[in-house]
Amino acid sequence: MHALVRRPSPRLADGLVTHIERSPVDIDLAHEQWEAYVAAMRSAGWTTHEVDPADDCPDSVFVEDTMVVFGDLAVISRPGALERRPEITAAEEAVRARGYRIAHIEAPGTLDGGDVLKHGDTVWVGEGGRTNAEGIAQLRALLGPLGAVVVAVPLTKVLHLKSAVTALPDGTVIGHEPLVDDPSVWGARFLPVPEEPGSHVVVLDDRTLLMADSAPSTRAMFEERGYTVVAVDISEFEKLEGCVTCLSVRLRTAQG
Ligand SMILES: NC(=O)NCCC[C@H](N)C(=O)O
User: Into which family does the record put it (predicted)?
Assistant: First the structure.
């Protein structure tokens, strides 16, 4: 099990904020929290690979947004925020070095990796924030031949689709209802959670979830369902609308 991560930029505190008020970021604490996040992944059996840092890009730590990986293909994103476009170059090199085939979202398409939720062969993509219809059409054309069913989902309330919903290993889609535009997209498989940060899980393995420690009630809910939860403090990234998912790209089909 391999994952890409990217060290925070010294300019992290200048990162973008869209749906929340800006509050001061403690850069030293952010570094400590990032190290602890990476350590948590390693303890769960993941080998982490660092994408070369992009010190001029404040949001580069949110490496999830640079790509979508499906099967043996890495689709390099075209971030919706101009400021974030330079982040993709080194991310592409890193995933290529892991043996993935490479494709790109091209202009006028835009797509952020954080807008893409995958479970099995279904790929839900949030449309309306950083990702546009053209970006989704390109993703569909690239992933369709690999067996993916790409479903566009409306997104207005939060930055990225995965700021609103993520999936448990059994395919249950979790979200904090006030921030989910249309839970009916997922029908009976949608499970409301009581806290906003409780919507974000990184699946470490079939029984283990990584989540923020700012959602204790949701954590208890998942533990009752039999999951082991590893909780990390990511307060400094949450101030920039980041969550646990955005800090890594899991390469579940390890290559080369
Ligand atoms: N996948 C994610 O949820 N990424 C978070 C990106 C936060 C960053 N401040 C941004 O606005 O792009």
Answer: Belongs to the DDAH family.
Q: How far is the CA of 219 from the centre of ligand 1 (A)?
A: 23
Q: Give residue-wise pLDDT tens across range 182-232.
A: 999 999 999 999 999 999 999 999 999 999 999 999 999 999 999 999 999
Closest ligand 1 atom to the C-alpha of 18? 11
What does the DSSP assignment read for 152-206? EEE--SSSSHHHHEEE-TTS-EEE-GGG-S-GGGGGGGEEE-SSGGGG--EEEET
**Catalytic residue numbers, as ranges:** 160, 246
pLDDT of res. 217? 98
**Where do the H-state alpha helices sit in the chain?**
27-43, 88-97, 133-143, 161-164, 216-224, 235-238
Nearest CA owner, ligand 1 atom 10 = 16
**Collapsing DSSP states into helix, strand and coil, what is residue 231?**
strand
Domains of the chain in sequence order? 2-251 (3.75.10.10)
Q: Which residue has the tokens 């949450």?
A: 238
- From the list 60, 64, 62, 59, the residue with the least C-alpha distance to 74 is 64
User: In this structure, what DSSP letter does residue 44 have?
Assistant: T
- Ligand 1 centroid to residue 163 C-alpha, Å: 9
With a cut of 90, say whether residue 70 has pLDDT above it. Answer: yes
Measured distance between the N- and C-terminal CA atoms of the chain, rounded to whole angstroms:
12
Q: Measuring from each residue's beta carbon to the nearest atom of ligand 1, which residues come in under 6 Å?
A: 15-16, 18, 59, 62, 64-65, 81, 84, 114, 159-160, 162-163, 240-243, 246
